[in-house]
Design brief:
The protein is an alpha/beta fold and about 280 residues long. The protein is about 35% helix and about 20% strand.
Length: about 280
Amino acid sequence: MTVRQLNKLLSDALSPFDAQMILETLLGCDHTQLILRADEALSDEIILKALSMKDRREQGEPIQYITGTWTFMGREYAVGKGVLIPRDDTEVLVRESLKLIPENRAMEILDLCAGTGIIAVTIKKERPLCRVSAVEKSERAFSYLQKNTEKHLAKIRCILSDLKDCADDFSEGSLDLIVSNPPYIRTSDLSTLQREVQCEPALALDGGASGYDFYESIIVLYRGKLKAGGSFAFEIGEGQSEYITQLLQNAGFADIHITNDIQNIPRAITATKMI
């Protein structure tokens, strides 16, 4: 069987995108190379692996878990079962966070609910003078956080802990920016998510009965850790901007800015501590 023939078999069963991802992973090539190798004969080992990956995808497993990698803002990250898959939506949060960090300043940055580390790694690579810490509760997700910081040679302090338990590890008034993409889906909505999303860890999705549990905890526990003039930056879900704005205003934050994603849905919120 040739690359072309296997690509057709996979595309007919799945989608052209999934077929491409599987073949590029197994052959260690990019899309252009895949086209150039269309008539190359494949070994039985490669064919069997491809068919196994096809079966997993047909059963609803996310393609990112099957291939073991995913790209975010031009960098490739290791992903797998037990960690939230990076999403393009989070780019809105990262870009807004970078606007808060002058390129020539060595700021103290904390990423809470760090997952794969896409936020912490991107900030460290784009603002190398900054000192970045990342907190993740799940041991399985933490292994990916470590793997990705090492992969990108990003010197980040990785902390395995519940964010509620490690708040006292950070001194009052010591941080310039706290950024987080916390779980924000209401518990009652988890069962309605598409099949692929339900393969991801509930720990990384479940924001409690209201969807606001983590925002409320972070604001209460970490407000004092920010310097005057320091900022919070959060990713938020659809319909959550008004309540989170109120939480921040009640906690003494101003200059609150909401940024929409490509679908014009409010996706990130930043706010500055005034006192």
